[in-house]
Amino acid sequence: MDVVRKVRYDSAFTFLYSPRTGTPAAAREDQVPPEVAKPRFDRLLREVQQIAAERCGRDLGTVQTALVEEIDSHDPSLVTGRLSNNLMVHFPGDARLIGHLVPVRLTEAHGFYYMGQPEF
What we know:
Blueprint: H1 2-7, H2 24-27, H3 34-56, E1 63-71, E2 78-82, E3 88-92, E4 101-109, E5 113-118
Parallel strand pairs: 3-5
Antiparallel strand pairs: 1-2, 1-4, 2-3, 4-5
């Protein structure tokens, strides 16, 4: 937790440990019981999400360059792009923008992604 608080990651891929059959770790007798591991994991996840939400909001209102990757899977009137810090931004556009760098004004921060408007 100290490392997470000091580094202040924009995001983190976190997973609850589970033994994998055939691995040396699975054969260890000193496993942390699930009733201890799960609350620890939940605390870590809450901390990462809180920091990520704070970090994501720092660029709100600015214009950033996004590399357009695809049509948004939830709303086909939007495209999904990646910013230089690897955060996603969803904004109005179509398939012609895929593969292009587009200036986007970041209008809403949602923790791990932004909503925006293209600035052509």
